[in-house]
Specification:
14 strands, 8 helices
Length: 289
Protein backbone atom coordinates (compact mmCIF):
# COMPACT_ATOMS: atom_id res chain seq x y z
CA UNK A 1 0.00 0.00 0.00
CA UNK A 2 1.29 3.46 -0.94
CA UNK A 3 2.01 5.98 1.80
CA UNK A 4 -0.20 9.07 1.60
CA UNK A 5 1.14 12.62 1.40
CA UNK A 6 -1.24 15.59 1.42
CA UNK A 7 -0.29 18.66 -0.64
CA UNK A 8 -1.99 21.97 0.17
CA UNK A 9 -1.63 24.57 -2.59
CA UNK A 10 -2.53 28.24 -2.29
CA UNK A 11 -3.21 29.14 -5.94
CA UNK A 12 -3.04 32.92 -5.47
CA UNK A 13 -0.18 33.42 -2.97
CA UNK A 14 2.69 35.61 -4.14
CA UNK A 15 1.19 36.07 -7.60
CA UNK A 16 3.24 33.00 -8.63
CA UNK A 17 1.92 30.31 -10.98
CA UNK A 18 1.90 27.06 -8.99
CA UNK A 19 1.79 24.68 -11.99
CA UNK A 20 5.56 24.07 -11.89
CA UNK A 21 5.44 23.22 -8.15
CA UNK A 22 2.47 20.88 -8.51
CA UNK A 23 3.91 19.06 -11.52
CA UNK A 24 7.34 18.64 -9.88
CA UNK A 25 5.75 17.31 -6.66
CA UNK A 26 3.55 14.86 -8.59
CA UNK A 27 6.57 13.51 -10.49
CA UNK A 28 8.62 13.26 -7.27
CA UNK A 29 5.83 11.41 -5.44
CA UNK A 30 5.26 9.06 -8.37
CA UNK A 31 8.98 8.21 -8.55
CA UNK A 32 8.96 7.48 -4.80
CA UNK A 33 5.77 5.40 -5.03
CA UNK A 34 3.85 7.82 -2.80
CA UNK A 35 0.18 8.71 -3.12
CA UNK A 36 -0.02 12.52 -3.37
CA UNK A 37 -3.45 13.96 -2.49
CA UNK A 38 -3.93 17.54 -3.69
CA UNK A 39 -5.98 20.29 -2.10
CA UNK A 40 -6.27 23.89 -3.37
CA UNK A 41 -7.19 26.57 -0.85
CA UNK A 42 -10.17 28.80 -1.60
CA UNK A 43 -10.33 30.98 1.51
CA UNK A 44 -13.59 29.21 2.43
CA UNK A 45 -13.41 26.80 5.43
CA UNK A 46 -9.88 25.70 4.47
CA UNK A 47 -9.00 24.65 8.04
CA UNK A 48 -11.95 22.27 8.39
CA UNK A 49 -11.42 20.89 4.85
CA UNK A 50 -7.73 20.15 5.57
CA UNK A 51 -8.76 18.42 8.83
CA UNK A 52 -11.25 16.22 6.92
CA UNK A 53 -8.55 15.26 4.38
CA UNK A 54 -6.11 14.46 7.20
CA UNK A 55 -8.65 12.21 8.92
CA UNK A 56 -9.43 10.46 5.64
CA UNK A 57 -5.88 9.84 4.39
CA UNK A 58 -3.74 10.01 7.59
CA UNK A 59 -0.78 11.43 5.62
CA UNK A 60 2.77 11.10 6.97
CA UNK A 61 3.55 14.61 5.80
CA UNK A 62 1.73 17.65 4.48
CA UNK A 63 3.50 19.55 1.70
CA UNK A 64 2.58 23.25 1.61
CA UNK A 65 2.87 25.29 -1.61
CA UNK A 66 2.43 28.88 -0.48
CA UNK A 67 3.72 31.47 1.95
CA UNK A 68 3.49 32.26 5.66
CA UNK A 69 -0.31 32.62 5.60
CA UNK A 70 -0.80 29.16 4.08
CA UNK A 71 1.65 27.56 6.53
CA UNK A 72 -0.20 29.22 9.41
CA UNK A 73 -3.55 27.88 8.18
CA UNK A 74 -2.26 24.29 7.85
CA UNK A 75 -0.43 24.47 11.20
CA UNK A 76 -3.66 25.60 12.89
CA UNK A 77 -5.58 22.75 11.25
CA UNK A 78 -2.98 20.24 12.45
CA UNK A 79 -2.15 21.67 15.89
CA UNK A 80 -3.11 18.49 17.78
CA UNK A 81 -1.87 16.05 15.10
CA UNK A 82 1.52 14.36 14.85
CA UNK A 83 2.46 15.26 11.28
CA UNK A 84 5.47 16.90 9.62
CA UNK A 85 4.91 19.98 7.44
CA UNK A 86 7.11 20.32 4.33
CA UNK A 87 7.38 23.77 2.73
CA UNK A 88 7.73 24.68 -0.94
CA UNK A 89 8.02 28.48 -0.57
CA UNK A 90 5.68 30.24 -3.02
CA UNK A 91 4.15 33.18 -1.18
CA UNK A 92 4.47 36.95 -1.25
CA UNK A 93 5.80 36.53 2.29
CA UNK A 94 8.11 33.54 2.92
CA UNK A 95 9.55 34.58 6.27
CA UNK A 96 9.40 31.13 7.82
CA UNK A 97 11.11 29.59 4.79
CA UNK A 98 13.82 32.28 4.89
CA UNK A 99 14.46 31.60 8.58
CA UNK A 100 14.57 27.82 8.08
CA UNK A 101 17.04 28.11 5.15
CA UNK A 102 14.47 26.84 2.63
CA UNK A 103 14.97 29.44 -0.11
CA UNK A 104 16.58 26.82 -2.35
CA UNK A 105 15.98 25.20 -5.72
CA UNK A 106 12.69 23.38 -6.20
CA UNK A 107 14.56 20.05 -6.47
CA UNK A 108 16.29 20.60 -3.11
CA UNK A 109 13.07 21.73 -1.46
CA UNK A 110 11.17 18.67 -2.69
CA UNK A 111 13.79 16.38 -1.13
CA UNK A 112 13.59 18.32 2.17
CA UNK A 113 9.78 18.54 2.19
CA UNK A 114 9.28 14.82 1.52
CA UNK A 115 12.25 13.36 3.42
CA UNK A 116 14.06 16.06 5.42
CA UNK A 117 14.65 15.99 9.14
CA UNK A 118 12.36 18.25 11.19
CA UNK A 119 12.43 20.90 13.89
CA UNK A 120 9.71 21.39 16.53
CA UNK A 121 8.73 25.06 16.30
CA UNK A 122 7.31 27.09 19.17
CA UNK A 123 3.84 28.54 18.81
CA UNK A 124 2.99 31.95 20.28
CA UNK A 125 -0.53 32.55 21.56
CA UNK A 126 -1.69 36.19 21.11
CA UNK A 127 -5.19 36.93 22.44
CA UNK A 128 -6.07 33.30 21.71
CA UNK A 129 -4.73 33.42 18.12
CA UNK A 130 -1.72 31.39 17.01
CA UNK A 131 1.46 32.98 15.66
CA UNK A 132 4.26 30.86 14.16
CA UNK A 133 6.58 33.50 12.82
CA UNK A 134 6.23 37.27 13.34
CA UNK A 135 3.39 39.52 14.45
CA UNK A 136 3.47 43.24 15.03
CA UNK A 137 1.61 46.33 16.14
CA UNK A 138 2.02 49.60 14.26
CA UNK A 139 3.72 50.54 11.01
CA UNK A 140 4.33 47.10 9.49
CA UNK A 141 0.76 46.01 10.22
CA UNK A 142 -0.40 49.17 8.40
CA UNK A 143 1.88 48.14 5.53
CA UNK A 144 0.29 44.65 5.48
CA UNK A 145 -3.20 46.23 5.38
CA UNK A 146 -2.19 48.52 2.49
CA UNK A 147 -0.46 45.66 0.66
CA UNK A 148 -3.56 43.43 0.92
CA UNK A 149 -5.59 46.20 -0.78
CA UNK A 150 -3.03 46.96 -3.50
CA UNK A 151 -2.76 45.45 -6.98
CA UNK A 152 1.04 45.24 -7.10
CA UNK A 153 2.34 41.93 -5.68
CA UNK A 154 5.83 40.72 -4.75
CA UNK A 155 8.76 42.74 -3.42
CA UNK A 156 7.95 45.84 -5.47
CA UNK A 157 4.46 45.87 -4.02
CA UNK A 158 5.91 45.70 -0.53
CA UNK A 159 8.44 48.45 -1.19
CA UNK A 160 5.81 50.71 -2.73
CA UNK A 161 3.47 50.24 0.24
CA UNK A 162 6.36 50.62 2.71
CA UNK A 163 7.05 54.11 1.38
CA UNK A 164 3.34 55.03 1.27
CA UNK A 165 2.85 53.73 4.81
CA UNK A 166 5.84 55.66 6.14
CA UNK A 167 4.71 58.88 4.45
CA UNK A 168 1.14 58.52 5.77
CA UNK A 169 2.10 57.40 9.28
CA UNK A 170 0.42 59.37 12.09
CA UNK A 171 1.49 59.91 15.66
CA UNK A 172 3.51 57.24 17.48
CA UNK A 173 1.55 55.28 20.09
CA UNK A 174 2.46 54.86 23.77
CA UNK A 175 2.85 51.23 24.87
CA UNK A 176 2.89 49.84 28.38
CA UNK A 177 4.75 46.52 28.21
CA UNK A 178 4.83 44.03 31.09
CA UNK A 179 7.31 41.13 30.81
CA UNK A 180 9.76 39.32 33.12
CA UNK A 181 8.10 40.96 36.17
CA UNK A 182 8.92 44.43 34.87
CA UNK A 183 6.76 47.12 33.32
CA UNK A 184 8.09 49.70 30.88
CA UNK A 185 6.30 52.57 29.17
CA UNK A 186 7.57 53.67 25.79
CA UNK A 187 6.64 55.63 22.74
CA UNK A 188 6.68 53.33 19.72
CA UNK A 189 6.17 53.26 15.99
CA UNK A 190 6.06 49.51 15.96
CA UNK A 191 6.34 46.52 18.31
CA UNK A 192 7.30 43.17 16.81
CA UNK A 193 6.36 39.89 18.54
CA UNK A 194 8.99 37.60 17.08
CA UNK A 195 9.46 33.85 17.20
CA UNK A 196 12.21 34.06 14.59
CA UNK A 197 14.78 36.36 13.05
CA UNK A 198 13.60 37.60 9.66
CA UNK A 199 10.68 39.02 7.76
CA UNK A 200 9.75 37.32 4.48
CA UNK A 201 11.63 40.01 2.58
CA UNK A 202 14.82 38.66 4.19
CA UNK A 203 15.09 41.64 6.55
CA UNK A 204 16.45 40.74 10.01
CA UNK A 205 14.30 42.31 12.71
CA UNK A 206 15.22 40.07 15.65
CA UNK A 207 18.87 38.93 15.64
CA UNK A 208 18.32 36.93 18.87
CA UNK A 209 15.44 34.85 17.54
CA UNK A 210 15.51 31.07 18.05
CA UNK A 211 12.35 29.28 16.92
CA UNK A 212 12.40 26.42 19.43
CA UNK A 213 13.83 27.90 22.67
CA UNK A 214 10.53 28.36 24.52
CA UNK A 215 10.82 32.14 24.28
CA UNK A 216 9.78 34.98 21.98
CA UNK A 217 11.17 38.50 21.62
CA UNK A 218 9.43 41.85 21.77
CA UNK A 219 11.26 44.27 19.49
CA UNK A 220 10.21 47.82 20.34
CA UNK A 221 11.02 50.33 17.60
CA UNK A 222 10.71 53.72 19.28
CA UNK A 223 11.28 55.83 16.22
CA UNK A 224 11.16 54.67 12.65
CA UNK A 225 12.23 57.54 10.47
CA UNK A 226 13.51 56.98 6.94
CA UNK A 227 17.08 56.49 8.18
CA UNK A 228 16.24 53.73 10.70
CA UNK A 229 13.71 52.21 8.30
CA UNK A 230 16.32 52.24 5.53
CA UNK A 231 18.86 50.53 7.77
CA UNK A 232 16.40 47.80 8.74
CA UNK A 233 15.40 47.20 5.10
CA UNK A 234 19.05 46.90 4.06
CA UNK A 235 19.74 44.47 6.89
CA UNK A 236 21.74 46.81 9.13
CA UNK A 237 19.44 46.88 12.14
CA UNK A 238 20.81 49.45 14.64
CA UNK A 239 20.42 47.21 17.69
CA UNK A 240 22.47 49.25 20.14
CA UNK A 241 20.73 52.49 19.39
CA UNK A 242 18.16 54.40 21.43
CA UNK A 243 15.68 53.60 18.68
CA UNK A 244 15.33 49.89 19.45
CA UNK A 245 14.79 47.75 22.55
CA UNK A 246 14.55 43.94 22.59
CA UNK A 247 12.96 41.94 25.41
CA UNK A 248 13.15 38.12 25.50
CA UNK A 249 10.39 36.38 27.49
CA UNK A 250 7.81 33.56 27.54
CA UNK A 251 4.81 35.76 28.37
CA UNK A 252 3.93 39.46 28.15
CA UNK A 253 1.12 41.99 27.97
CA UNK A 254 1.10 45.08 25.79
CA UNK A 255 -1.38 47.94 26.28
CA UNK A 256 -1.50 50.91 23.91
CA UNK A 257 -3.00 54.37 24.50
CA UNK A 258 -5.19 54.01 21.38
CA UNK A 259 -6.11 51.11 19.07
CA UNK A 260 -3.20 50.26 16.75
CA UNK A 261 -3.05 48.17 13.54
CA UNK A 262 -2.06 44.57 14.23
CA UNK A 263 -0.97 41.64 12.03
CA UNK A 264 -0.12 37.97 12.60
CA UNK A 265 2.16 36.10 10.18
CA UNK A 266 1.48 38.50 7.32
CA UNK A 267 -2.29 38.64 7.83
CA UNK A 268 -3.96 41.91 8.86
CA UNK A 269 -6.11 41.45 12.00
CA UNK A 270 -7.63 44.90 12.51
CA UNK A 271 -6.73 47.18 15.43
CA UNK A 272 -5.90 46.21 19.03
CA UNK A 273 -5.17 48.16 22.21
CA UNK A 274 -4.34 45.19 24.46
CA UNK A 275 -2.41 42.00 23.73
CA UNK A 276 -1.96 38.99 26.03
CA UNK A 277 0.98 36.95 24.72
CA UNK A 278 2.39 33.61 25.83
CA UNK A 279 4.34 30.65 24.49
CA UNK A 280 1.96 27.78 23.71
CA UNK A 281 2.93 24.17 24.51
CA UNK A 282 1.78 23.13 21.01
CA UNK A 283 4.85 22.56 18.87
CA UNK A 284 4.72 22.29 15.07
CA UNK A 285 6.98 19.85 13.21
CA UNK A 286 8.48 21.45 10.10
CA UNK A 287 10.90 19.77 7.69
CA UNK A 288 14.35 21.39 7.48
CA UNK A 289 17.57 20.83 5.50
Amino acid sequence: MKNNILMVVNPISGGVDKFEFIEAALIFASNENLNLVQYETSGENDISKVKILYDKYKPERIIIVGGDGTIKMVAEAMEDKDVILGILPAGSSNGLAVDLDLMRTLEENLEIAFYGDYIKLDTIDINGKKCYHLSDLGLNAELVKNYEKSDVRGKWGYLLQALNTLIDSGEPFTATVTANNQTIKSEARMIVIANSKKYGTGVTINPNGVMNDGKFELVILRNLDLVVFGKIITGNIPINSEAIQIISTDKATIKTNFPVSFQIDGEYCGVESELEIKISPNKVKVAIP
